[in-house]
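Reviewers of the previous submission asked for a worked example of the structure-prediction workflow described in the proposal, so we include one complete record here. The input consisted solely of the amino acid sequence. No template or homolog information was supplied to the procedure at any stage.
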Amino acid sequence: MKLNNSWTKKQQQKKHRQISSDIGLEYDIFIKTTWEIIYHGDENEADCPYTIKFIETPEEILRKIPKLGNQNEIFVSNFKDYHHDFVDYQDVEPMISSKPFYGNLYSTIFNLRQLNALYISEAGLLNTLRKQIYVNAIGAMETYLEDVFIFLISNNDNYFKDFVRNFPKFNKQKIKLSSIFEEIEKLKEISIIELQNIVYHNLGRIKPMYEKSFNIKFPDIDYLSEAVITRHDIVHRDGKNKLNQNIKITPEKVDELLSEVVIFSNEVCRKLELNNNDWMKNADR
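From that input alone, the workflow returned the following structure tokens.
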């Protein structure tokens, strides 16, 4: 099993250049070393410091590394999330990774790209792997749509009010005036629970929710809606369609889906103006 993919190699090179710059070591020297990252805390937190530990590296190279500790380690206080910062797709604009839902999406797509580039000699295993990657790509999209929606109604009262006004389930409920204040106090909590129970790969349902709550035109969903049907066949029919025909998931088909997920998510980001560095810009709009 091995990685053999120019895209992955390009990302690794960028990653190595950034790390060598962070620790003040020339890149040509750094690539001759063997190292690992040791996180001091939760690596998912933006302020998590880390240590670069050099292992099995020749002594003559170690002597050239500045600020090297006794255990062949360099402590770095300014955290850099290398998974998130070096996803450089050629077909989309980069998304801001300072928000959790961007970072989570990037990290998942990055890992799925690498899995899709794995070479496995056993055809059955390879086919199973690609089907699982395909399913996980749809899952990444679902998670992104859910996280963005909950983030916005949690941080913007106007969005929250529009969601409550237009959510079909709430339109059917009746409230006694005597209990209205108690209901208002727990309304946001109830709304979050309802949003967490929604199936976000049902794009036909998600589209009007986004449009009515955030006053935007939702991106085109034709391609991804078809991909969701394929995902359904993989999960519930073991990769066969309704005609009992095997669905062929090629690496090219997987790459196309991964790109479409990021393009779609990036378009949602732009329509909501979330790619502005001031991430709370619309909080009081």
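The longest strand covers residues 35-39. We consider this example representative of the routine output the project will generate in years two and three.
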